[in-house]
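Notes, p. 3: input format for complexes.
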Amino acid sequence: MRKRYMGPILLTLPVSILSLTGPAIEVVVGPYDATQRTWVLPKALLSYHSFFFRAACEHDFKERLENRVTLPEDIPEIFGLFVQWMYSEDCDIIKHCNYEDGVYNGVRAWVLGDKLRVRGFKNFALRQLHKLLIPLDGNEPLCHIEPIEIRYAYNNTLPESELQRFFLLATAAYWDCGHDKIKYLIKSEDWEDLWEEHRDFRNDLLRNLLSSREVRLARLRRVMGDFEIENKDVRS
Ligand SMILES: *[C@@H]1O[C@H](CO)[C@@H](O)[C@H](O)[C@H]1NC(C)=O
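Output follows (236 residues plus 2-acetamido-2-deoxy-beta-D-glucopyranose):
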């Protein structure tokens, strides 16, 4: 009888599976209270996706000594989405029964991806926002934009970030379109805080509103294409 070949098979496996081998590190996310969560994740998987974790695993003395990274200011649920995305290249940013949560999750996911320096996750989050707010068939958006989402985007990203640009163009495009979902948005009192905190947003919005609605909608539709081209295969 011929002997079965028992040589190494690892070489034929995809990188994503190979990166699940080797040592793990603890990632502790959230403030020190009942909501805090700890994940134990393969270092190779984290380093493969994130420059932040690559630095933490390879260079940061304290992290290497304790074999633990703590992220007290981040949100466990959003980090959970990132973990899901790392393993499957997909995750539940949009809960289908509740689109409104999808927008806030998407904003926070983008911000986390920016901090951890994971280009793929940022693009993923942006595509989800795009699905909710710019449906392909030209129908009205699936939900409205809340000032808190714009404030979060403006509080936590650098001026002129893709996320800021996305919200500016989306708000300008739908400002006077008359969809019920968007009208509701204008009545919300939180807008006053936004005007106060982020004058640059207010000024840019007013400047955009000088253009016709068709022009503003076209700008919004074009912006996603621009993001995709700029970011193609770039990890940052
Ligand atoms: C944005 O920052 C301001 C000022 O620091 C703060 O009062 C507000 O709660 C923040 N809002 C969000 C949504 O992060």
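The beta strands are 24-29, 37-42, 68-71.
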